[in-house]
Amino acid sequence: MNIELTKYLPAFIHAAQALNFSAAARNLSVTPAAVSKNIKSLEKELGVRLFHRTTHSLTLTDDGERFFHKVNPIVQQLENVITCSQSLADQPKGKLRVSLPYGFGRLYIIPLVKGFRKLYPDVELDLSFEDRVVDLVEEGIDVAVGNRIDPDSSIVARQLCPLRLIAIASPEFIDKYGQPATPSELSQFECINYRSPTSRRLFPWRFTDTNGENITFETANTVVSVSSVELLCELAVQGAGISMAGTWLAKKYFDEGTLVPVLEKYSAEGPPIMIYYASRQNLPSKVRVFIDYVIENIEVPY
C-alpha cells in the first residue's frame, strides 16, 4: 500500500462530493489551501488530472470520476471498520483489578458486585482485599478504595463517603471500669489502637468539642495495636479496652448491642473514603462504569 497516496484521499473524497474546495475544507476542519495542496499531491502520485479547475467551478475529469467511484466505497468501508472498532473500545470489558480495604470492601462493595455484573457481564472483577496503600501504576491496579492517598500524586479521587469516627467500648467494659467524660480522661483507660501497616505509627485520636475546639489524644495508654480496622471492634467487643472506629464499621455492633459509643459529645472525623484511579487520558470504559456504579449505589451509614 502506498501510504503517501492514502493520506491524500480524504481531501479528494470530500472535494469530489462537494465539488468545492472550501466546503471540503470545512468538513475536514482544514484550510482550502490544504485541500488543494493534498489533491495536487494525489494527482502527482497517480500521474493523472482529477479535477477541472476554473475560477468559478470545480468538476471531476473522466479519470477523476472513475477514480472516485473505485476508491469511495473502499474509504467508506474503512471508516465503518474504524467506527465499529471505536464502538467496541467503548464497551466495558476485560479484567478490572480493584484494591479494597477488607472491612469496608466486604460490607459495602461486595453487595454491589451482583448488580454491576448484571449490567456489565463482560467485565471480570479481580478484587484484592488489603489494608494498605497501593501503588496503582507500579502494581497494575485499575481502581482502589481508601483514605490514605498521597495528595501530591497524579491519581484522580472521587469521594465515596465522609469518615466519621467514634470511640467505642463493650457494655461489660464500661460496667467494670466506667467510661471517660472527656478525651483527656482516656489516659486512665486501656486503649486499642490502629497501627499503620506501612509506617508502623499509631493513629492519633482527634476530637472536636461542642465549642469547635480540637483535641488530640495520642493514645499513650495503648495496650493493643492492630493493623486491621475490623479487629478494633472485635477486640473492643471482647472487653480489651476502648477503641476508635468508623461509624460505618461500628454500626453493626451498636445494632447488636455488643458495643456502645463513648464520648458521644465529642465528634471525630478522619479523611473521607475515596475511590481513585491513576490519572491518564482515554480512561478505559470498564474503569469509568465501575466507579460511576459504586458511587451511585453505595449506601454507607455515617
Keywords:
302 residues, Arc Repressor Mutant, subunit A, D-Maltodextrin-Binding Protein, domain 2, nine-stranded mixed β-sheet, 42% helix, rod-shaped
Explained architecture:
With about 300 residues, the chain is α/β, with parallel strands linked by helices. It folds into three domains: about 5-90, Arc Repressor Mutant, subunit A (Orthogonal Bundle); about 95-160 and about 270-295, Periplasmic binding protein-like II (D-Maltodextrin-Binding Protein, domain 2), CATH 3.40.190; about 165-270, 3-Layer(aba) Sandwich (D-Maltodextrin-Binding Protein, domain 2), CATH 3.40.190.290. The chain contains eleven helices and 13 strands. It has helices at about 5, 10-20, 20-30, 30-45, 60-90, 100-120, 135-140, 170-175, 230-235, 245-255, 285-295, and strands spanning about 50-55, 60, 95-100, 125-130, 145, 155-170, 190-195, 205-210, 215, 220-225, 240-245, 260, 270-280. The strands form three sheets. Strands 3, 4, 5, 6, 7, 10, 11, 12 and 13 form a nine-stranded mixed β-sheet that branches. A hairpin with a 4-residue loop joins strand 1 and strand 2 (about 60). Helix 2 crosses helix 4 (about 30-45) and helix 2 (about 10-20) packs across helix 5. The longest helix has 29 residues, at about 60-90. The radius of gyration is 32 Å and the shape is rod-shaped. The model has no long low-confidence stretch (mean pLDDT about 85).
